[in-house]
Amino acid sequence: MGYLRLPCYLMCAVFLAPFVALIANAVSSIDVSVWPRFAVELKSAIWTIWTGLCAALFALAIGAATAYHVTFHRVLLRRVVDQSIVLSLLFPTFVLGAVYKELFAASGILVNIIGLPAALTFDFQSTGGFIFIMSLGLLPYVYLLSRISFESYGPLALDLGQTLGLSTARSFAKILSPLALPAVAIGALLVFIETAGEWATASLLSVNTGAVAVQALWFERQVPNVASQLAFLMMAAAFVGVVPLIRSAQHKNAPHIEAMLARPPRATRSTPAPYLKWLRFLFCLTPGLFGFIIPAATVLYYLTGTVGSIDLSELLIDSANTVVLIVVVLLITAVFSVLLSATHCYSPSFASGLALRWLTASYAVPAMVLAVGVLTLLDQVSAIEDRTSDLFSFLVLAMTLSVRFACFLFIPLYIGLTSVSKQVEDVGGALGLSYVHRFSRLHLPLVQRYAMFGLLLLTLQIIKETSISIALHPFSFDTLALKTYAYIDIGLLPESASWIFATALLGLYPLLTIKRMMLKRRPKRS
Predict the structure, then answer these.
(1) H runs (alpha helix) in 347-447
(2) Is there a contact between 165 and 171 (Cβ–Cβ < 8 Å)?
């Protein structure tokens, strides 16, 4: 399948162009003498690492502990607890930030309606508030991946521990924890990457992170060269510090993904002691309570008060725009992912391997940094005359989102193709099929489950993405997330309730389907 290399390399060049343009502009325009004028913005990049680590550690501790209790113990209302934790991913994190900022404000709902003492209010416009919101909204990553490992390896670990005379706790610590560590670590790594690159929530809560600084330097202070240099430093830090972790986690978690899609068995659950029953229930309910139930109740409260005044046609247009953007990004990413994964699987080369590693690791680059790279590229391409037309801006936005989230599709595809390629090649060769017929008739049907999983992940990310859309979207094109942020940014959280509700509805099917695919059980043996 060497003839696929040329189109694959062309698409890889397009996908990598923003990074190349950003590096070239930053290196060619570097001027250390002006850096002292922007010391606050430059220091924010270091602060970003600290907030990301704190959020990741908090999500790791709570998410893994909750998954342990749900997996190995009979928690009261287990389905409710489980669903409430996972459904936290329905809301963009800036929505959670706006909800808790409003609830705990001195003039908020808890003080005026419920009568909460002012001494118990909390200012969420702080670093602590930002860390709490990000860890709360992203905790399901750790929870789901922890449950996959616990349910995959739990029965084996407990049986082996019982054979060795170990208690359940010691079996977990000495046998299960090392087996589950790679999957749990990738969940914490996702939390770190998302937190370190978050712009919308940090901007809303007035936290000066690296992404906020890059946006301010480019759009507000009008110093694109300095913005490019800071973006380059953040991109270099991501590739130097995070990329080795991503590659290691990707290698170690390939068996986890295959086991996940092969329906791991259910782990046995012990009968809890009576005095622990309610404590476990309250502990496991807490993440879902603060991550989904309270925000959802607040949104519904505002929705009932504003539903009569919303512009239904505007809501429908924004919903349609979101669907159109999802479809276009999925098509672009699907074509590119099939080309890249198939080329590297069946006709590997140094170039395809480099593109695969770079684009996998590029997810660690903050979204606002990628947006600045695209803007830098557009400024350097003088042949483009009409850069402000709606169609051109829309295509740029769709391509940038494809670059940002392509790894969510081509990694599962590549893992699927790698796992079935040898057997299929033998069958195809025995039948005398050409490479094209082998790939279209034998390979693709066998990796449908992997492809569906990647497409659903990609859809969920596009629905909630805000940073790139704000920087690159056409002036006449609004999505649900964009309009939600626009309302919240000017203090109109109640008026945004309809758009938040529509965003949650649009993401409900992909999220629940992903959860069902990850935690689906084997059929019971007769």
Answers:
(1) 350-361, 367-380, 390-405, 407-431, 435-437, 444-446
(2) no
CATH of the domain at 192: 1.10.3720.10
Same domain, 15 and 127: no
Is pLDDT of 94 > 60?
yes
Structural domain span for residue 203 = 49-208+269-301
Of 121, 75, 104, 122, give the one whose Cα is nearest residue 276. Answer: 75
Same-domain pairing of 5 and 60: no
Rounded distance between C-alpha atoms, residue 15 and residue 38, angstroms: 31
pLDDT digits 0-9 by tens, 172-208? 777 777 778 888 888 898 899 899 889 999 999 989 8
- Do residues 190 and 141 lie in contact, with contact meaning Cβ atoms separated by under 8 Å? yes
Q: Which neighbouring-strand residues pair with 73?
A: 270
Q: Are residues 286 and 384 in the same domain?
A: no
**Residue 523 DSSP symbol:** P
Q: Does residue 444 contact residue 457 with C-beta atoms inside 8 Å?
A: no
* 1 and 112 assigned to the same domain: no
Question: For residue 239, which of 120, 343, 369 has the smallest C-alpha distance?
Answer: 369
Q: Provide φ and ψ at 354, rounded to 5°.
A: -65, -45
Residues 285 and 384 in one domain: no
pLDDT digit string (tens) for 16-73? 889 888 888 888 877 777 777 777 777 887 788 889 999 999 999 999 999 988 888 8
SS3 content of the chain, % helix, strand, coil (to 5): 80, 0, 15
Q: Are residues 437 and 506 in the same domain?
A: yes
Other C-beta atoms closer than 10 Å to the C-beta of 27 total 11
What pLDDT, on the 0 to 100 scale, is given for residue 347?
74
Torsion of CA 192, 194, 195, 201, to 10 degrees: -170
Cross-strand pairs, 99:
none
Q: Are residues 355 and 393 in the same domain?
A: yes
Residue whose entry in the numeric block shows the structure tokens 């099917």: 509
DSSP 260-272: HHT-PPPPP-BPP
CB half-sphere exposure, 242, CA atoms < 13 A: 27
pTM of the model: 0.86
Sign of CA dihedral 474, 476, 481, 485: positive
Question: Alpha helix locations (H) across 73-126?
Answer: 78-86, 93-103, 109-112
